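Two entries, shown back to back:
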Amino acid sequence: MTFPQGLTNGEDSIFISLVQLYVHHINFTNETLYLVNEREGSASRSWTFDRVYKMKNNIRFINNYIEKHPNLNRKQKSILDYSIYGIVSAIFNHLYYCFSIKNYLKILRVVRKQLNRKLDTGNITISKKKVRLLNLSLNWFSFTVLINQRFKQLSR
């Protein structure tokens, strides 16, 4: 298993999802395994439209992974579908910081193209209602994420 190449945001999350596909058992430990260093100007701190737009590649990566591994079982596919949900959610959460109607429509179009099927998160219950909303309507899902971000900003 290798770290996803060519992805600029969220590649660590995708790697963790890929690990979860094949792991037999997960133990929690007090050891430091991975350090996140957010420095001024890092990709995880400054969200430009270009950075948000490139996150479509993360969805494409997972879709390609599923296509290239037809023997994945339902549980493994549900982990990957949950990862896609997380990416779509992150895209619209971060779009808030560089929002314009033009950017919104462009992102909506490219995400819709990548969501070529309904997501099935199986027994993963976290955010189940949000996944259902995303499956029902990308427009409604994106609208609720953006409105939620607005309320968060107003309450700060």
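entry 2 starts here
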Amino acid sequence: MHKQVQTAWKSLFDVEHPVWQLAEKVWTVLVLNLLFVLTALPIVTFGIAQFSLVASLNQLRLKGKIAAVQTFMSYAKTKWKQGLLLGGMDLALVFFSLGDFYLVRDMQAPVFEVFKVICVAVFVFSRLLFLYAYPLAVEMNRSLKEILVHAGLLVGVRLSLTLLVVLVQVVLVLLALWSGFSLLLVLSLLATIGYAGLLYLFLLALHKK
């Protein structure tokens, strides 16, 4: 009995124990999330931050263990051009769609109602398009046009995953709009670990065979 207890304690404090491996992975995701937030703060560097985050999470998915800071900064230094290009187009679509919607938000004519729907559709589709585009850019040495075309196809081909992503986003928005406290809670979680955590789960689902 005593030997069994000793064995159990040794197993519990073994760094290879699944519990400790999970804790280490959660810590890595948290660090990557914070690095992403800090890197993306100037807004113009959002693409670099997003590319580095996706690439680092992909390495975590493949290897199970990475040096978070070194891996993230390495991608930020070596792949900043790809990230800047993707991020520039990503932000441009967001600003144009939301900006145009804001300009016509109080106009009630049928043509403007249709235009509002188009703006919302462009915004939603661009969010889904670039969700697939960044992982493809990390894994494929292709032109931006080829990556976006491939990403657009994946939005439809992986329809079940796409719909799940939309559902999660809708739930998060509804929770955020529930009250001032829930808004603060959702934003706090996304800023600390939630964003990278959800993105990591997306990468796992995307590569699931």
